[in-house]
Design goal:
This protein is an alpha/beta fold and 327 residues long. It has one domain: Metal-dependent hydrolases (TIM Barrel, Alpha-Beta Barrel). The chain has eleven helices and nine strands. Strands 1, 2, 3, 4, 5 and 6 form a six-stranded parallel sheet that branches. Strand 8, helix 8 and strand 9 form a beta-alpha-beta unit. The longest helix has 19 residues.
Length: 327
C-alpha cells in the first residue's frame, strides 16, 4: 500500500497517470490555503469535475474503505485537506459542513496566527486560542484530523494534549536533522506520536538537509533514526509535492491576503519560486526510490510497508468517522 499524505500539485491527467504509475493508492490533497468557505466549495466543485473526467484514474476518498476500493479498481483515492482554518471562517458550525463535503484534514494555522492557533513564523507563541480549543473538540466529534504542520511548538503541544483523538503533522521533518522553522522539535514529535499521532516526512527542499542536493541516503537515514526514537508505526510520507505549479503560487501560499509585500518564507529572497526537487524524487513515479532507500537503511519489510502507506491507512480507519461511529 502506498499513501502520500500531502500534495499540492497543478493537477492534470498527466499527474493522475503518474500517480497510477507510482502505484499510489491514496493522496491527501490541499484544497485551500487562504480561501474562505465559498471559495473552498468552488475548489471542491473543480475536483468533482476531475473525478468525472478522470474516473478511470482517481476517486474521491472519504474513509479508509475507499482506499480499499481504489486498490481494487486500480485508482488513487483523493482525500481533501486544508492548510488553514480559513474555510470555516469564524463559524464553528462550518466544521461539520466541511466534513460533510469530504474534508478530512484541517491545519489550525498556516505560518501566522489564526483564530485557532499560532503559526510557526510568529515571534510570540501563546498557543491555542479559546476558539481553537472548541474547534479541536468539534473536529474530534465529527471525524476531522487536526493537522499542525505549519503551527508553532506550543500550539502543537497543546493541540496534542487537548485533542481526544490522535493528531497529525502531515508534512514536516525533525528540526534536529534540519533546523527549518517549519520542521519540528523532538519534543513536539514525541508529544504527537506518544498519543498515537502521525508524522509525515516532507520532501519539499526547504525542509531537507542540504536542500535540493539532499541525498536519498540522508533522507532515509533520518526516517530510520526517527523510527528508533518514536516507533516506525507512527511515521509516513507527506511529500509536500507541488509538481508543475508556477512560481506565482508560492506567493499565494506564503503571502495570501495578509500582506501587501511578498513573504519569501523559508526560501531565499534571491530565489522566491519553487526550489528544484531532489533528483531522486521528481514526481509520483519515484516512490520506489523511497522504498529501496528505507530498506537500505536497515528498516525491515513491515516497517517500510507501514511508512510507505500502511500506517496512514490505519490512521484513516480510526480518524475519519464521527466519535459515535468508531468501533
Amino acid at each position: 500500500m502506498r499513501i502520500d499524505n500531502l500534495q499540492y500539485a497543478n493537477w492534470s491527467q498527466r499527474i493522475f497517470k503518474q500517480m497510477r504509475e507510482g502505484q499510489l493508492d491514496a493522496v491527501h490533497v490541499t484544497i485551500a490555503y487562504h480561501e474562505n468557505f465559498r471559495e473552498t466549495v468552488l475548489n471542491i466543485e473543480r475536483w468533482n469535475r476531475w473525478f468525472e473526467d478522470h474516473a478511470d484514474l482517481i476517486m474521491h476518498g472519504r474513509s479508509a474503505s475507499d482506499v480499499d476500493e481504489a486498490r481494487r479498481s486500480s485508482r488513487t483515492a483523493i482525500f481533501f485537506g486544508t492548510q488553514n482554518p480559513s474555510p470555516i471562517e469564524d463559524d464553528i458550525g462550518l466544521v461539520q459542513i466541511c466534513h460533510t463535503l469530504g474534508i478530512r484534514f484541517m491545519q489550525l494555522s498556516y505560518n501566522n496566527q489564526s483564530l485557532l492557533a499560532t503559526g510557526c513564523y510568529e515571534t510570540h507563541d501563546p498557543g491555542l486560542t479559546r476558539m481553537g480549543r472548541e474547534v479541536v473538540k468539534e473536529m474530534n466529534r465529527v471525524g476531522m484530523v487536526i493537522d499542525m504542520s505549519h503551527s508553532s511548538d506550543r500550539s502543537t503541544l497543546e493541540a496534542a494534549e487537548v485533542s481526544s483523538r490522535p493528531i497529525a503533522i502531515t508534512h514536516a521533518n525533525p528540526a534536529s536533522w534540519h533546523p527549518a522553522r517549519r520542521n519540528k522539535s523532538d519534543a513536539v514529535i514525541s508529544a504527537v506520536t506518544k498519543r498515537d499521532g502521525m508524522l509525515g516526512f516532507s520532501l519539499y527542499p526547504h525542509h531537507l538537509k542540504d536542500g535540493s542536493a539532499c541525498t536519498l541516503e540522508s533522507f532515509c537515514r533520518m526516517i530510520a533514526d526517527t523510527a528508533e526514537r518514536v516507533g516506525a508505526e507512527h511515521l509516513g510520507i507527506g511529500s509536500d509535492l507541488c509538481q508543475d505549479q508556477p512560481d506565482s503560487v508560492v506567493e499565494w501560499m506564503r503571502s495570501g491576503r495578509w500582506t501587501r509585500s511578498v513573504d519569501f518564507g523559508e526560501g531565499s529572497a534571491d530565489a522566491p519560486g519553487f526550489p528544484d526537487m531532489p533528483h531522486w524524487f521528481k514526481d509520483n513515479r519515484d516512490f520506489d526510490q523511497l522504498r529501496s532507500g528505507l530498506l537500505a537503511c536497515g528498516l525491515d519489510d513491515n516497517e517500510v510497508a507501514g511508512i510507505m502507506g500502511g500506517n496512514w491507512y490505519r490512521f484513516y480507519e480510526t480518524s475519519f468517522k464521527p466519535i459515535g461511529e468508531v468501533t
